[in-house]
Amino acid sequence: MERTFKKTGTTLALGLALLSGAALAGGNDGSRQEGMLDVNGAQIHYVSQGSGTPMLLLHGYPLSGELFSRNRAALANAGYRVITIDHRGYGKSVAPEGDTGSIQTYAKDALAVMDQLNVPSAIIGGMSMGGPIVFEMYRTAPERFKGMLLIDTIANPANVVEKALWGGMAQKAVTYGPQSLVGELLKDMLTGVTRLSKPGDAKFLGDIVKQASVAGDVAGAKALSERPDSLPTLGTITVPTLILEGVEDTVYPPPFAMKMQQNIAGSKMVLIPGAAHAAIYENAPAANRAILDWAKTLK
To answer: Hey, what CATH topology would domain 10-156+230-295 get?
Structure first.
């Protein structure tokens, strides 16, 4: 059955993006666009850079599309249209009070953004919380995938200990504000070596964490706590899949990535040295090389 793409309001949304100064000059890849889209009652911020095969990258908790700031140009200059979004309640995106976010809602938002940006299919990737969102997108619309990219993420549902952790994160955000989560998260996002030798990296990610809304922090924590069991989904994945994993990731350590690789037929796993949970940012050159080496086989 063919999917019908809803384009109502696309011209208006893109026009508003341009009027707000969202169209910015890009690099050798062609162009960069940045703007806001009216998506499922939320205002979703997006960045699109480059031209060619679309690559949609979804961030983890409680970050934003700026997690991929060190990946956009490298991938775009190699012939890809790199699209990043801020999930509702994060970065510059705004969530309505009636639906502050869930794995299912984030997935619907990402598919709707693809519709509005006229992207029938793409290489779709997700980091950490972005992984369960990608799995939900695949269960909903597998025909939208040219390939799948799983970055420091997990297919398992949350266990009792992890549920308690996310509940604590939500309560801390409510009590002390989003900025209070910076210390809790950065110790796992970056290796100790990076935090000590590159304080600018820690500040950059910390500033992103501070941009989230309290409602977004609470919704994301609940989404992670109640995420669906995606282990049965792994055996149904038939598109080319790359799994990237920071060697020093303590949130979802390498054994989880290895389990996904074993259960997704034909998938490839690359370990990123000198990197923890935010490997895609901490060791961006290695991550970019791995993505491009894999993605060129899909063309």
So the answer is: Rossmann fold (3.40.50)
pLDDT tens, position by position, 148-191: 999 999 999 999 999 999 999 999 999 999 999 999 999 999 99
Spatial strand order in the sheet of 23-25: 23-25, 31-39, 42-49, 80-85, 53-58, 122-127, 145-151, 241-246, 268-272
Alpha helices in 190-244 (DSSP H): 192-197, 199-211, 214-225, 231-234
CA distance 124 to 132: 12
Please state the pTM of the whole predicted model. 0.90
What residue ranges do the domains of the chain occupy? 10-156+230-295
pLDDT tens by residue, 121-131: 999 999 999 99
